């Protein structure tokens, strides 16, 4: 007789603001009232771009996982499409937490948040606003919009200004947004144009996905002023920072400075690049460390992976 699958996956649609978010709920088999970790992705990314890989590993370890896609992207609701609003995305996180708390069969006293890249910055913000949470994971987190903008180069803002102006006018006129690529080749007009940005994003996109490599340009001014790293000092429960030493999108020096202000922060650094975190051996190292952290902080007798090569740990 075939053995039971270690988890089941359920399609979920939950309300947020004026629309809804699509999500997957991973439930570990044979675990009564498991703790749960909520996963959110980065700039314009959808949950099928490797959030499922992390969620599956957490579920195999006995932790329920709730991976969602922000409004305006993928198969979630929201008009216009490809609108990246920091305020709305943070509201989506709040709605996800509320849904998890209300859903039967989960332990609402043992909830963690997990975010990657831009979602890693959101995880920091959300953790600072929800003291009832038990833990947070910020993976290659966006912590300082100004630092990330400077990493694009001095001419990037000059190139972007006309596009932003046209999109703001489109907003006033209530017509279709003017788009800018999320990722592009070096020197191109895009939110990310480091050498590894475009191939890194493309490597995460599965066949038949709803992902579009563009976003409404009006987001750019708010990206520059968004500095979630500043509230790390307000998080009084454990938070794990997984930081790339070679990150081309979220400069590691600034991220480390913010991470060290978290009263109960744990820091692990990796030599893999920003987009390498989702695949291959870097993914294996990260998910091992994250399961170890979540297992400890969610206070459960969960199944942990066999010990592997540990990444450097710095406080």
Question: Outline of this structure?
Answer:
The chain is of the alpha/beta class and 315 residues long.
Write up this protein.
50% of the residues are buried. It contains nine helices and eleven strands. Residues 301-315 have low confidence and may be disordered. The protein has helices at residues 51-60, 86-102, 118-129, 145-152, 156-173, 197-202, 220-225, 252-259, 280-297, and strands at 7-16, 19-28, 36-40, 64-68, 111-116, 135-139, 179-180, 215-216, 239-244, 265-270, 313-314. The strands form two sheets. It has a nine-stranded mixed sheet, sandwiched between helices. It is an alpha/beta fold and 315 residues long. Helix 2 (86-102) crosses helix 3 (118-129).
Describe how the helices and strands are arranged.
Elements: E1 7-16, E2 19-28, E3 36-40, H1 51-60, E4 64-68, H2 86-102, E5 111-116, H3 118-129, E6 135-139, H4 145-152, H5 156-173, E7 179-180, H6 197-202, E8 215-216, H7 220-225, E9 239-244, H8 252-259, E10 265-270, H9 280-297, E11 313-314
Parallel strand pairs: 3-4, 3-5, 5-6, 6-9, 9-10
Antiparallel strand pairs: 1-2, 2-4, 7-8, 10-11
Helix pairs in contact: 2-3
Supply the number of helical segments. 9
Got a strand count?
Answer: 11
Strand content: 15-25%
How would you write the strand order of the largest sheet?
1-2-4-3-5-6-9-10-11
Topology as a string of helices (H) and strands (E): EEEHEHEHEHHEHEHEHEHE
Gyration radius, rounded? 19 Å
Structural class by secondary-structure content: alpha/beta
End-to-end Cα distance: 48 Å
How is the biggest beta sheet arranged? 9 strands, mixed
Average residue pLDDT:
91
The stretches of 5 or more residues where confidence is low (pLDDT under 50) are 301-315
Q: Categorize the overall geometry.
A: globular
Helix proportion: 25-40%
- Subunit arrangement of the protein: single chain
InterPro entries: AB_hydrolase_fold, FrsA_esterase, Hydrolase_4
Protein name: Alpha/beta fold hydrolase
Pfam family, one: Hydrolase_4
GO molecular function: hydrolase activity
């Amino acid at each position: 007789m075939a053995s039971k699958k270690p988890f089941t996956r359920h399609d979920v649609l939950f309300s947020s603001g004026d629309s809804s978010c699509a999500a997957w709920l991973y439930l570990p088999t044979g675990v009564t009232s498991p703790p749960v970790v909520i996963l959110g992705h980065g700039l314009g990314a959808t949950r099928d771009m490797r959030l499922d890989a992390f969620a599956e590993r957490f579920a195999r370890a006995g932790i329920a996982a709730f991976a969602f896609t922000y409004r305006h992207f993928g198969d979630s609701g929201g008009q216009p499409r490809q609108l990246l609003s920091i305020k709305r995305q943070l509201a989506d996180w709040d709605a996800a937490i509320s849904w998890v708390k209300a859903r039967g069969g989960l332990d609402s006293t043992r909830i963690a948040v997990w975010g990657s890249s831009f979602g890693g910055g959101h995880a920091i913000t959300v953790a600072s606003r929800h003291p009832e949470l038990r833990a947070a994971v910020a993976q290659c987190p966006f912590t300082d919009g100004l630092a990330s903008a400077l990493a694009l180069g001095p001419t990037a803002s000059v190139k972007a200004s006309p596009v932003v102006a046209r999109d703001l006018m489109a907003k006033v006129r209530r017509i279709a947004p003017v788009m800018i690529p999320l990722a592009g080749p070096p020197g191109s007009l895009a939110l990310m144009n480091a050498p590894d940005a475009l191939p890194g994003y493309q490597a995460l996109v599965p066949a038949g996905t709803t992902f579009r490599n563009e976003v409404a340009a009006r987001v750019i001014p708010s990206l520059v002023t968004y500095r979630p790293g500043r509230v790390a000092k307000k998080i009084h429960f454990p938070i794990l920072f997984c930081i790339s030493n070679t990150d081309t999108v979220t400069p590691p020096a600034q991220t480390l400075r913010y991470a060290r202000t978290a009263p109960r922060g744990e820091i692990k650094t990796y030599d893999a690049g920003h987009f390498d975190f989702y695949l291959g051996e870097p993914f294996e190292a990260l998910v091992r460390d994250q399961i170890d952290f979540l297992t400890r902080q969610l206070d459960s007798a969960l199944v942990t992976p066999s010990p592997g090569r540990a990444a450097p740990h710095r406080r």
